[in-house]
Design brief:
about 130 residues; mainly alpha; Peroxidase, domain 1; about 65% helix; globular
Amino acid sequence: MRLTVLARRYAGALFGAAKASDCIDLVESDLGLVTYSLENVPQLAEVLKQPLIPIERKKEIVKDIFSGRVQELTLDFLDLVIEKRREFILIEVEKEYVKLANEYRGVLPIKEINASHKGRGFHRKKS
């Protein structure tokens, strides 16, 4: 299964739970912290990638790091992801969750179009 499709499913499930708990923004912030940690603390990313480290130990490490810093719902989600051995999708889940949260808020992605005197008409600027 493609990474984005898998991440979208997990993000959708988490978004539904966050919406039911009225904590969409808090969970979004939590996922941002998790992503930041994975990108900036190589040891954490390595531990989660390592198949020889037992699942329960990974859960303990994640709980030690994030307990008190993120919502209980987010901790439960991280536990589930680790239990299913899907740690590799966490960064992509955050991206998909943000899309869902923005869509829910009515925030649409924009595409910038610049007028140019060079060449013909308008040019799309890739973002």
